Amino acid sequence: MSEQPAPYQHVQPTAEADVQDGVYRVVGTPDGEVTLLRVTNAAGHRRHTGTVVQVSSSTFKTAFEPASNPDSGFSLSAIVDRVVTGVKGVYWFVRP
């Protein structure tokens, strides 16, 4: 990667990286290092692993590539809206 890391950016390791496979989210960039949180397993399934790794900026640029956000397309508010709409529909259907 040639760009500077930015918080919330998603990346995945290349063969040169010495970390577990999966998608990582940039959570910090302190003093020439990049802090990454692993957010998926190797198969790309969303996981709350708690795995945090730090790599140097140079390693980040050479051993990671951009990845899509595993949460894109997921919207908690959309799910809640559908549930509320369904409850309202049932109420109007069964009300006295």
Structure description:
- Helices cover 27% and strands 24% of the residues.
- The protein has helices at 57-63, 76-94; strands at 10-13, 24-28, 33-38, 52-56, 64-66.
- The protein has a 5-stranded antiparallel β-sheet with strand order 4-3-2-1-5.
- A hairpin with a 4-residue loop joins strand 2 (24-28) and strand 3 (33-38).
- It is elongated.
Give a brief rundown of this model:
This protein has 96 residues and is α+β, with helices and mostly antiparallel strands. The chain is built from 2 helices and 5 strands. The chain has a domain of 61 residues.
Question: Which key features would you list for this structure?
Answer:
single chain, 96 residues, alpha+beta, 5-stranded antiparallel beta sheet, elongated
Taken as a percent bin, the fraction of beta residues is: 15-25%
Q: What is the structural class?
A: alpha+beta
Total helices: the number is 2
Would you identify the regions where 5 or more consecutive residues have pLDDT less than 50?
none
Number of strands: 5
The average pLDDT is 82
- The succession of helices and strands, N to C, reads EEEEHEH
Shape type: elongated
How far is it from the N-terminal to the C-terminal residue, by CA? 63 Å
CA-based gyration radius: 19 Å
How would a textbook summarize the main sheet? Answer: 5 strands, antiparallel
**Neighbour order of strands in the largest sheet:** 4-3-2-1-5
What share of the residues lie within helices? 25-40%
Indicate the topology:
Blueprint: E1 10-13, E2 24-28, E3 33-38, E4 52-56, H1 57-63, E5 64-66, H2 76-94
Antiparallel strand pairs: 1-2, 1-5, 2-3, 3-4
